[in-house]
Amino acid sequence: MSGFIIILIICKIAFAETGHISFNGQNISVRKMSDGSVWFMQDLGGDGKGYDWRFAASKDACPTGWHLPNNGEWKSLNELIKKEGRIVEDFAKSKMAHWWSASEHSIPYSHLWYVSGETLGSNYSHKTDAYSVRCVKNQEYRVSVQGNNDD
Question: What's the start-to-end Cα distance of the chain, in Å?
């Protein structure tokens, strides 16, 4: 008896390098990064007032098919930004910006990411504080299983 199984996992995002989507009456600029992830290039945050973490992490903060990025996604974006050398001019509209992460720190706190000058960093803040939201597009996974089992 001999056999084999091949499992292919393919990440697929069909999106232009840059584009726009409409969400809550806003025309939001989006960009496909070199790793295939697609990010909002504009802040969401209740007319500049920000959202508390509970709302930011809810399914209502981002459009269907998008979500609040977790620390792993922020870290991947940070590595791309470092490698490509474009942090402030391409990602942050201002010199000082803060965004929620979906990753919790502890019961009353959650992680947030910020741009200050040329740095992208992480910290944590109380979940009742208000910060902006950047959404990242859900990745579509296609799993293909091929097998050959000789009995």
Answer: 6
